[in-house]
Write a structure and sequence with these properties.
The chain has eleven helices and 29 strands. By secondary structure, it is α+β, with helices and mostly antiparallel strands. Pfam families: GTP_EFTU (PF00009), GTP_EFTU_D2 (PF03144).
Amino acid sequence: MKWRLQEGRGEAVYQIGVEDNGMLVGLTEEDMRASLKTLHRMAEKVGADITVLREREVDYDSDVPRRIAEVLIRKVPDDQQFLDLRVAVLGNVDSGKSTLLGVLTQGELDNGRGRARLNLFRHLHEIQTGRTSSISFEILGFNSKGEVVNYSESRTAEEICESASKMITFIDLAGHHKYLKTTIFGLTSYCPDFAMLVVSANTGIAGTTREHLGLAMALKVPIFIVVSKVDLCTRATVERTVRQLERVLKQPGCNKVPLVVGSTDDAVTAAQQFAQSPSITPIFTLSSVTGESLDLLKVFFNIIPPLSNSKEQEELMQQLTEFQVDEIYTVPEVGTVVGGTLYSGICREGEQLVVGPTDSGQFHKLTVGSIQRNRSACRVLRAGQAATLALGDFDRSLLRKGMVMVSPEMDPTICWLFEAEIVLLFHAKTFHKGFQVTVHVGNVRQTAIVVAVHGKVKLRTGEKAVVRFRFIKHPEYLKATMPRSLHSKSLSCFLCFVCVFVLILSSFFTP
């Protein structure tokens, strides 16, 4: 059990009454009680809690009824670092993304007029229009017994972090087409483990829904779908929307296997199969006003395991420190604060790092002050975790989004030119030398010019080629390889211009 919990980064699922070869033999009621009692005693020894996820009877050659059970074992890891999963929330404008997150994290149903989403908005115009234009973060916790921990019982994020053994961090992204660049930045920069595509039941697949689905698939982010606002429609309308989604998912470009979740048993199965197979796509139908099927989504979040195991995490932590800068703030009495994700290594308070590159290609020395994860203090930051770092009186004018903070031992190099193999997904005209595009590589977002298209003069929709690009404003820090636990997102970048999406799949060239 210790090994299973370590491999699962604090949680594991046991199947009782199942042979090693997968045969469902089941146990009698007396044997089942004895097995659960033994499992409970084992869990107590390692400081974990057990939760029975589901039980069912099986047909076996016996006169005595036999049952099988699935049990979730969860504990707070020895280093007191709760399991943290990041979920990007995608979907068309007015599909109910922010409202759903407000209901999940606040613990109160919506009033049908958007009250639940008000706590998520960051700007006045978002409150006035009801449309998200920036990237915001919300958290939902689960304790060792699988119970929900949110703001309904905890006043602050720090209290939620103290009570939770597992944390779901939602990245609320914009749905409107004019904020598409912000959505792409959120997907490439914040390295989500999963993506939740929200579709309104009454409008179906509309607006940017297809674009968001394509972005998640191109970046190889496992995706599941939530059909919201079922309280506004008849059952026939909801079923029509689900069938529409199933048709799109089964198309040759997607090759997904839709799995409609209608019960707790389905939710448990969906969580397990979703993590094991990238082709499985669970579909939930729920309402943020009536709360219909909302518990099924919570069961799914409670059980879904991390994509990386402890061995991969250890390998990342043994590498040199590399922290990408996604946000920059100035906090009174604290000074300059940067937010982002630690790609590799370990970052501690008081650590000496270098940040850059500047417009002239230089890297400046700095000292990390305090560290916060999910708005609560943290002394040590590990690879794959997102946090904010206080830099004290470091000059904010020297910082910009897209920079990296790395260990001085890494001897970072700058990049003006890079090459990549691209696939032109759609463009009304032709793609050729001299084109200016916005390049998204991880947290880097900058305009670049096409210097050369190798082997071809022009590219049309659906064609592939190796293209050389040159940044226009300033050099960037790029790498040809990135850790698998971050889904190799720095190997994927998007070139965005009017009605054009180009996916870069291969490595970079740094002169």
